[in-house]
Design a protein that fits this description.
405 residues, Elongation Factor Tu (Ef-tu), domain 3, six-stranded antiparallel β-barrel, four-stranded antiparallel sheet, 7 helices
Length: 405
């Protein structure tokens, strides 16, 4: 506060000198001399030039410096890598392996999701197929029951006679169909008349064969082997019917639950693999990033305190970065008496101690809420934003700050 006290003393001396001169000129009129108090003057304080912001950067981890990518005076942007530490290969290998695992897990997840989607999309067709299978199984079971009944139950003679009559009638229709077809047998296959009689002949042959089988089933006496075979066929047909009914009942409410459950298990497992691989990549990348020294804001490299090959400790400052886009004056000796006459936005005049011919201007940007105690005084720090800066001035130069009323 030497400059501040000197200004006050000079002001008081000047006031006393002027008062004495006035008294000598008007000795006939005796008036009391008024000495102005310090509070009648503008608030004056000492300050120091500082950039908008600055920081001393250090590596998160310790290690050996293997690369320095900047020089003092270089302009950098936030996020730029300024220097690197060694021992990067294990982490880079881990990242590559985790990326391969992630790709494989994502493919498996996609496959499982597609399988589940296919189950849902194909369910209507599967339900239709199950219904057809159930219909066929029912018919097979009825046929097996009928065959077993024929094998184990003697037929009534009346039924046998009726069955034989059906054979005779079917045989007559078959003979008539053969006679009708015979004149056209050698005609081309695309002849419509030939095709019509051939179709009728086929129907007649089928009816005849069915009638013969029905008659034989009634008339023949089954032996033990035939009965056993019929029983086995009937049991198989009933088992197939039960399974077909079960499959159909399950598909009525949706896709096959076992296949859905399997697809969902695959999806969950794949999602877990994807998450684990992503976490591994993130962790390894973070560890690799910690081997880089990165600019935290746009600015200029002011100082570099390391060379390639140095062993640095975690957090040890090795690079000073400053933002010179704006200049400020910080004054930390506003007393509690003076600070009440200072307000944010108030205009300020600044004169550097190193260049009294230069006068700068600015305005109060902020005033600290917390106090400091210096040499018995309660003081507050004010931060003043300059309107412009003279190229001759440098960071850290001291200035005299006058707060304009």
């Amino acid at each position: 506060m030497k400059t501040k006290n000197l200004l006050i003393v000079l002001s008081l001396g000047l006031s006393l000198f002027l008062a004495a001169c006035g008294a000598a000129a008007t000795q006939s009129v005796e008036e009391p001399t008024v000495i102005p108090l310090v509070s009648d003057f503008a608030v004056v304080a000492e300050g120091q030039l500082v950039p908008k912001q600055f920081v001393q950067l250090g590596f998160v981890n310790g290690g050996q410096v293997v690369e320095i990518l900047v020089e003092e005076g270089d302009a950098v942007s936030a996020g730029d890598v300024l220097a690197r530490l060694g021992d990067r290969e294990p982490l880079e290998t881990n990242i590559a392996s985790a990326q391969l695992e992630l790709a494989a897990a994502q493919l498996e997840l996609l496959s499982a999701e597609q399988d589940l989607q296919s189950l849902n999309e194909n369910w209507p067709a599967a339900a239709t197929s199950a219904q057809e299978a159930l219909t066929n199984a029912r018919q097979a079971a009825r046929d097996a029951d009928r065959t077993l009944l024929y094998r184990t139950t003697p037929a009534d003679q009346t039924d046998i006679d009726v069955a034989w009559s059906q054979v005779v009638l079917a045989e007559k229709k078959l003979d008539d169909a053969k006679e009708d077809f015979e004149p056209y047998e050698d005609k081309p296959a695309d002849n419509l008349t030939r095709a019509t009689f051939q179709s009728l002949l086929a129907q007649a042959q089928g009816s005849y064969d069915d009638a013969v089988r029905h008659y034989n089933a009634l008339a023949d006496t089954a032996n033990d082997f035939e009965i056993f075979q019929a029983q086995a066929s009937d049991a198989i047909a009933q088992a197939r019917l039960e399974q077909a009914q079960k499959d159909y009942d399950e598909l009525l409410v949706g896709p096959d639950p076992d296949q859905v459950a399997l697809a969902e298990i695959r999806i969950a497992a794949s999602e877990s693999r994807v998450s684990a691989a992503q976490a591994n990549i993130k962790m390894s990348q973070a560890a690799l990033d910690d081997l880089n020294l990165v600019a935290t804001f746009d600015g200029t490299i002011v100082k570099i305190d390391m060379i390639i090959g140095d062993q640095v400790l975690p957090g040890a400052p090795v690079v000073t970065l400053a933002d010179f886009s704006q200049w400020y004056v910080e004054t930390d000796n506003l007393t509690e008496i003076e600070v009440v006459d200072v307000a944010v936005g108030q205009r300020v005049s600044i004169v550097p101690d190193a260049a009294l011919s230069i006068e700068l201007s600015g305005s109060v940007d902020s005033i600290a809420n917390i106090f400091e105690e210096k040499r018995g005084d309660i003081t507050y720090t004010a931060r003043i934003l300059l309107d412009s800066i003279d190229p001759a001035l440098r960071w850290g130069m001291t200035v005299v700050v006058t707060f304009i009323e």
